[in-house]
Known about the structure:
The chain has 253 residues and is an alpha/beta fold. It has two domains: 2-112 and 203-252, Quinone Oxidoreductase, Chain A, domain 1, CATH 3.90.180.10; 129-199, Rossmann fold (3-Layer(aba) Sandwich). The chain is 24% helix and 24% strand. It has helices spanning 55-58, 104-107, 113-125, 147-154, 170-179, 206-217, 233-242; strands at 2-5, 14-17, 27-31, 34-37, 43-45, 76-77, 80-81, 88-92, 96-98, 160-165, 180-188, 196-199, 225-229, 248-252. It has a three-stranded mixed β-sheet with strand order 4-14-13. Helix 7 (233-242) links the parallel strand 13 and strand 14. The longest helix has 13 residues, at 113-125. Residues 36-99 form the Alcohol dehydrogenase-like N-terminal domain. This is GroES-like protein. Its cofactor is Zn(2+). Belongs to the zinc-containing alcohol dehydrogenase family. Keywords: Metal-binding, Oxidoreductase, Zinc.
Amino acid sequence: MRASKLEQWDRPGKYVQVLKPVPGYGECLIEMKAAGLCLGEEAVVHHLKHCGICNFCTSGAEQHCEAYKRGDVVLTRGAGLDGGLAEYLVVPRHELVSIGDQDPGLYAPLTDAGVAVYHAVQSLAQLDYGKHWHWRADKVVLSDAPTGPKLLDMTNGNGIDYIVDFVGSGQTLALAAKFSRPQGRILGWNHMATSCEFALSIGSTRQDLEDVCRLAAAGKLRINMQNFSFDQIQEAHDSLRAGRLSGRAVIVF
């Protein structure tokens, strides 16, 4: 089958002939209908590859799948693993979301960009307001260069659940973001302005994708996109780099 493959970074992709993938146990062979750039996908595929069986996956937080440990290079579709710019794609069944008889081209922009924004909004909506906290310090660490590794060591490498930043500078917020654990929460405070609380959002979950697809099916989303044929992949990349796109680039097969 034909596929568009990026063989070297910062160079144009190439059309190559590759073997048609064969699904294994628990996997599905998909004939591609449309793929959004930078990623692709009558079912759509969740853009983050996940195992489906670890604690994070089974609790609906697939973007923190334990297959991707802290500090490891994340391999996902189109970045280290085969993506959607080919005629066929094999994926595990648990990564698919049905869209019924809807046009796949309309959903291609939602599987990455759309669902990531949705997840960020949902994260903000889930912050806990009105809780009463009792403060005490069991351990004190001097705020200097080794602070982050010391904090990580105190949590056995897992990161911190809740962080309250009373400085609110770019440096301290960057430190908080780096050593917060997956699904951790950061409260930023600055005496020069009102106190604020924010969440860190990374990727999205399969449930997010189902929600976004339902919103699209109900006509509640305005999806801006520009279609390109499979033979126009390089033209689509060039338009993306040059800022000529008015929406998401979608490769239509």
